[in-house]
């Protein structure tokens, strides 16, 4: 080699070494820079998290302090309400004794209005012989009397705190609270401190407006006694006392007696929230501070530790990659110097690849090379034929032919079967290459077993019920569609059967033993049902306790036998859970699919109808669907139920109003209406409720419909009638299912409060048959609504022929006579007698009497003659759409 070329070669080698050393020297600096950057990002994240936690903690403390302030007023306001009610009772009563006093207190339910309630008492004022004296106030009535007998005859003037509150209440005619003092009936007991809320009782007459008049007309004083500790702890129980320490001080108390309540002895070390409760002439200061530092140090610590660890790992990874590259370059240089032959270079470069790399001779009869990954998965395959690796040798022959031909063979799924071990799936490519001028076959394959297993698992989860392992509803319906399509396409397709069933009384297991027991029962029953299925039959869970079976290639007798076996297997199954034992049954609906043209929707509707028929027939039986009038009616009801659900969701329900006309109107009578439900037809028409109410009741939709009517009517009360806000009253019908809903009264009263409608302008109509179905529950709902000011009407009165017996037990305001008696009033003497009797009894009980279905003048004349108060019907007013929906 010439000297110049040798020098250049030497210089190039030196340059390579210098470059490698320069890269090696800079590697730690890059890694250190990445580490510092990661630590800074971690610190910024931790600081942001700490700020957010502090802000959230402050918002929580403010919310709890506001809630505590509001809750503290509730028992005091409740006591004031009791006193105002009793003040009214004294003014209205001709005479009061201990028994009547206790009776009124029991009706007011003061324990529910005021936590910490002890008693309500009345002290009679007796003038002092000394004109300058304040007189005496001795307790005359106490309720409850049991445990408080010591107060009878006790003079309030012996308790200065009580006397000052009494005098201040007398002069202001406002509820006034005393300073805390020891309640004498609890002397020596723990937590005996309490307060009294006072209100005066004046003699009858006009309301006294001056202090002098109030003092002159005072006849006594009412008091509600409250124990401080239970009053405060019950008012603040829950999140307030769980998260906060509370100190309450009476700012108007004497020095040394300011502390009313303390949930902790130590003074606050964290910032406190301060609120003030003003009531009855006293000021209570509430100081609230968190029980502990709410900062989530564990989360911050986790962020710091994780961020530091990630930063260190990234820096080490960068350093490792930089040094590895240097080592790889050095290794490549050495390998290129050591191996000059093409075959050796090929083997070295592919040895460390994760993919399987194999080299065989041109016809694939002998493998000449296998890299490390191939040897680990396939064993020692060198000198073996290539086709021996494939689970399907014919597949290998086709691949070799394609690789050596013009088309080539690329990336196909192939299963390899090693001599030792389990077969596995690969994504393989086979190509023809030349090594030193000689044709060879190069095969590269990637193990896809894990990916394939994951895909199969995801497919299984998408098509099977997670709890029971049987098919889910989506997959079951897909297979049903395929079965229906197969029947329509094939000339002589075999019939198949669909079984649709749900478990009877399954809800009882969940209610008594919990959902874990219910889940375990479903798993056991699914296993028992699978054991009864024939080959090719499919079991699926369609809902909570609903299952379906698809049985292909069976006739009616075989399908009924299969359904009966499943029913018996469920009936025989004994489920034990802890100390309880359960046996269940199933109602099964069977549909035979023997004709073409059926749709999935038809099939499911028929099966559901048959299952419903099994339930109506007594449960625990199999019913086969047949096209008769009853089945058609049930399917029709299902269609109406679905249409009603859609109308509720899409806002297609309508309201009409019909006026109720007074037959002997008083001046300023105003307008009274009853709301009537309608549904908009997709074609633009109007559907009357007779078409869909039956379906709504059967499928449990009436509570949702009634709540829609109530909410819509109250939200648009001033836009129901053209008279606007002058509308006197509005009547709304309630179904039996709604009245039996425990939350109905709360829903109505919440809506009344939310929309500001006066309760006296609302009348709720309940049919007689609903009222007598559960008299106690209906009476409770009526009493709650009437107590709020709403009116109650008993609709269709007289239809049940037991009305007179129930009337005296139901708290109603109006009676609406059933239209069947009113319609024939002019022609049927018995109807006249019944209407006359209902009117007389209603007026005797101070109730308004209404008549519906008035369509003739002769009927209207008889109603006036009999003294009926209101009438309703097409003769007087035909229903019209409410104003806001026109």
TrEMBL record:
Subcellular location per the Swiss-Prot or TrEMBL entry: Membrane
Keyword Membrane on entry: yes
Chain ranges of the CHASE domain: 141-287
Coiled-coil intervals: none
Transmembrane portions of the chain: 29-46, 300-319
Chain ranges of the EAL domain: 637-886
Identification of the protein by name: EAL domain-containing protein
Species assigned in the record: Luteimonas composti
């Amino acid at each position: 080699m010439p000297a110049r070329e040798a020098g250049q070669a030497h210089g190039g080698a030196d340059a390579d070494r210098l470059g490698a050393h320069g890269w090696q020297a800079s590697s730690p600096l890059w890694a250190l820079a990445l580490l510092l950057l990661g630590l800074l990002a971690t610190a910024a994240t931790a600081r942001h998290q700490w700020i957010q936690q502090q802000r959230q903690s402050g918002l929580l403390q403010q919310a709890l302090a506001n809630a505590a302030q509001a809750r503290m007023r509730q028992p005091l306001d409740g006591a004031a309400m009791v006193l105002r009610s009793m003040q009214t009772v004294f003014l209205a009563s001709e005479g009061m004794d201990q028994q009547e006093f206790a009776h009124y207190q029991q009706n007011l339910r003061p324990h529910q209005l005021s936590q910490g309630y002890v008693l309500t008492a009345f002290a009679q004022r007796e003038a002092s012989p000394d004109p300058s004296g304040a007189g005496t106030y001795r307790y005359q009535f106490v309720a409850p009397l049991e445990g408080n007998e010591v107060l009878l005859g006790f003079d309030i003037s012996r308790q200065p705190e009580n006397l000052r509150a009494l005098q201040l209440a007398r002069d202001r005619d406002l509820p006034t609270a005393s300073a805390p003092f020891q309640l004498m009936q609890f002397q020596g007991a723990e937590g005996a401190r309490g307060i009294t809320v006072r209100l005066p009782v004046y003699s009858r007459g006009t309301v006294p407006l001056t202090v002098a008049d109030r003092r002159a007309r005072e006849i006594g004083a009412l008091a509600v006694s409250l124990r401080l500790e239970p009053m405060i702890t019950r008012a603040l129980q829950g999140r307030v006392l769980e998260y906060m320490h509370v100190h309450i001080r009476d700012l108007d108390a004497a020095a040394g007696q300011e502390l009313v309540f303390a949930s902790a002895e130590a003074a606050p070390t964290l910032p406190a929230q301060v609120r003030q409760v003003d009531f009855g002439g006293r000021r209570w200061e509430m100081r609230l501070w968190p029980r502990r530092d709410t900062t989530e140090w564990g989360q911050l610590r986790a962020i710091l530790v994780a961020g530091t660890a990630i930063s260190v790992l990234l820096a080490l990874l960068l350093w490792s990659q930089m040094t590895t590259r240097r080592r790889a370059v050095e290794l490549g240089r050495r390998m290129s110097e050591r191996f000059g032959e093409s075959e050796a270079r090929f083997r070295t470069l592919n040895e460390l690849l994760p993919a399987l790399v194999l080299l065989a001779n041109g016809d694939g009869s002998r493998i000449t090379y296998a890299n490390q990954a191939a040897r680990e998965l396939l064993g020692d395959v060198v000198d073996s034929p290539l086709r021996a690796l494939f689970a399907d040798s014919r597949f290998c022959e086709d691949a070799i032919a394609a690789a050596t031909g013009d088309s080539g063979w690329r990336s196909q799924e192939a299963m390899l079967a090693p001599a030792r071990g389990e077969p596995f799936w690969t994504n393989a490519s086979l190509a023809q290459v030349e090594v030193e001028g000689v044709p060879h076959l190069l095969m590269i394959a990637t193990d896809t077993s894990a990916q394939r297993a994951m895909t199969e698992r995801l497919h299984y989860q998408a098509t099977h019920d997670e709890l029971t392992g049987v098919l889910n509803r989506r997959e079951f319906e897909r297979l049903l569609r395929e079965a229906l399509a197969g029947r329509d396409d094939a000339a002589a397709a075999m019939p198949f059967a669909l079984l649709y069933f749900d478990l009877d009384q399954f809800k009882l297991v969940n209610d008594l033993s919990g959902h874990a027991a219910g889940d375990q029962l479903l798993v056991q029953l699914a296993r028992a049902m699978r054991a009864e299925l024939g080959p090719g039959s499919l079991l699926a869970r369609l809902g909570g306790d609903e299952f379906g079976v698809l049985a292909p290639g069976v006739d009616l007798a075989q399908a009924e036998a299969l359904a009966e076996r499943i029913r018996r297997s469920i009936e025989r199954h004994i489920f034990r859970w802890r100390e309880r034992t359960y046996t269940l049954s199933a109602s099964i609906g069977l549909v035979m699919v023997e004709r073409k043209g059926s749709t999935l929707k038809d099939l499911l509707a028929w099966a559901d109808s048959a299952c419903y028929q099994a339930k109506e027939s007594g449960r625990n039986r199999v019913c086969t669907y047949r096209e008769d009038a009853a089945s058609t009616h049930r399917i029709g009801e299902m269609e109406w139920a679905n249409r009603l659900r859609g109308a509720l969701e899409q806002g297609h329900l309508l309201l009409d109003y019909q006026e109720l006309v007074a037959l002997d109107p008083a001046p300023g009578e105003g307008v009274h209406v009853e709301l009537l439900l309608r549904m908009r037809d997709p074609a633009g028409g109007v559907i009357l409720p007779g078409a869909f109410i039956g379906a709504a009741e059967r499928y449990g939709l009436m509570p949702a419909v009634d709540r829609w009517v109530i909410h819509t009517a109250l939200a648009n009360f001033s836009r129901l009638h053209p008279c606007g806000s002058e509308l006197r009253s509005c009547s709304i019908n309630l179904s039996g299912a709604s009245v039996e809903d425990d939350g109905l009264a709360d829903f109505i009263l919440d809506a009344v409060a939310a929309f500001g409608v006066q309760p006296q302008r609302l009348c709720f109509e309940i049919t007689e048959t609903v009222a007598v179905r559960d008299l106690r529950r209906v009476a409770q709902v009526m009493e709650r609504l009437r107590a709020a000011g709403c009116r109650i009407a008993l609709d269709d009165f007289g239809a049940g022929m037991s009305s007179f017996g129930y009337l005296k037990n139901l708290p109603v305001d109006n009676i609406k006579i059933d239209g069947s008696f009113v319609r024939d009033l002019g022609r049927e003497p018995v109807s006249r007698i019944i209407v006359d009797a209902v009117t007389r009894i209603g007026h005797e009980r101070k109730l308004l009497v209404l008549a519906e279905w008035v369509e003739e003048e002769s009927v209207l004349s008889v109603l006036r003659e009999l003294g009926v108060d209101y009438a309703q019907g097409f003769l007087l007013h035909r229903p019209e759409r409410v104003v806001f929906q026109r």
